[in-house]
């Protein structure tokens, strides 16, 4: 899953009579961002209040990512910075994927850490806080042997208009490069009833956009007798009164079935965007990655989407420099970009991860070569995006207003097909437009965003 820039707007504080304060920093994907919203809820429920800086906090928590080595290093750098504070009454906790992956080794590497808790143990997070408060300085939650998902009524959401709902946790695939099955455990789907209740509750609170989350949402399988698959759940969430936009991430091409396209075609509130990570354009590399599909099978999904009733924006993830990737394999990835014409992509240099099967593979690609391929790929994609975004000039698009660039005098909008569309709007007399749906005419474009003028009279 991909990094998110969700603004950390709200700071939560129940009535804090105890002086218990916490600081939480989140790294990684939307799953982590949303887990943090639930962890914050649990903390506030137990009488903690959130502060802006680690310096002010009694409890300092990092919700971590270990998808690539660089992401993992970040948390150790943060902990290193605070070593000197260990004796000053601060308590440090490592949550999430690095916690799960490194386990009790974290206590050796950073002895001032008192809590190490993977995401599969968040259901016990409240109990762990009690142990910390009792003075226990080696508290762990590291079991992956769970059938539970982390559902809580206390979630504190950062955004008042767009809400995440986790529908499935963990992953049962075994992609050769990927650490997620080891950090998030086996797949567990929530019941359709609890997902629907959450969606209705959010609509009642005024949320208009829902993003369904999971490492592989397509393999959602309702554990209750109703037995809904992902396409059914998606269609039903889209029918909840008050919900105007539904997004979902992330999809695995192998489980991306035709019924999902049909559900999208028949529900206008499902956004015009599909993120379908391909990883490589070479069937040989895909087989080595254990991705369970060939290039042709992937392209069949793309054809479904391109010949659908609506026009869908397509985005993807690509790894360059996987062991054994030759120049010819890489060329096939470049050709795939030409063929698909993605609207955006996340590209990464292959990063060897603990426990994964690719670690033992030969024919490693040197780092300079990975870097060279990454730059070529990004350059090609940039040219595609410049051209594709320019095609929008002159069209009128509906945006959900998400923010404001005060210095530019522009509002920040997002289209259904997940483009950022910054736009000017007549003076509102100080009234915020955030959360509204407006029509905007596109006047200019760049590689990563569009610019326009509001045509809605407010
Ligand atoms: N090295 C580089 N990129 C990786 N990803 C996952 N694991 C690795 C790794 N070991 C990328 C994939 C995935 C995205 C979330 O991160 O492209 O889709
Ligand atoms: Fe998300 Fe994967 Fe990173 Fe964990 S390792 S935070 S699941 S991207």
List keywords for this structure.
458 residues; alpha/beta; six-stranded parallel β-sheet; five-stranded mixed beta barrel; 19 strands; globular; disordered N terminus; binds 5'-deoxyadenosine; binds iron/sulfur cluster
On the 0 to 100 scale, the average pLDDT is 94
Say which molecules are bound, naming each kind only once. 5'-deoxyadenosine, iron/sulfur cluster
What characteristic shape results from the CA principal axes? globular
The helix content, as a percent range, equals 25-40%
Q: Biggest sheet: strands side by side, in what order?
A: 2-1-3-4-5-6
As a whole number of angstroms, the C-alpha radius of gyration is 22 Å
* Structural class determined from secondary elements: alpha/beta
- The strand count comes to 19
Largest sheet: 6 strands, parallel
Please give the alpha-carbon distance between the first and last residues: 37 Å
Strand fraction: 15-25%
- The helix tally amounts to 13
Task: Set out the fold topology.
Blueprint: E1 21-26, H1 30-45, E2 49-50, E3 59-64, H2 69-81, E4 91-96, H3 97-102, H4 105-109, E5 113-117, H5 125-133, E6 139-141, E7 162-166, E8 168-169, H6 180-184, E9 188-189, H7 192-204, E10 209-213, H8 230-238, E11 245-249, H9 258-266, E12 273-275, H10 283-288, H11 295-306, E13 313-320, H12 327-340, E14 344-349, H13 367-390, E15 396-405, E16 410-415, E17 420-424, E18 437-445, E19 450-454
Parallel strand pairs: 1-2, 1-3, 3-4, 4-5, 5-6, 7-10, 10-11, 12-13, 13-14, 17-19
Antiparallel strand pairs: 8-9, 15-16, 15-18, 16-17, 18-19
Helix pairs in contact: 8-9, 12-13
Bound molecules: 5'-deoxyadenosine and iron/sulfur cluster.
5'-deoxyadenosine binds at residues 1-2, 67-68, 177-178, 277, 279, 317, 319, 348, 350-351, 353.
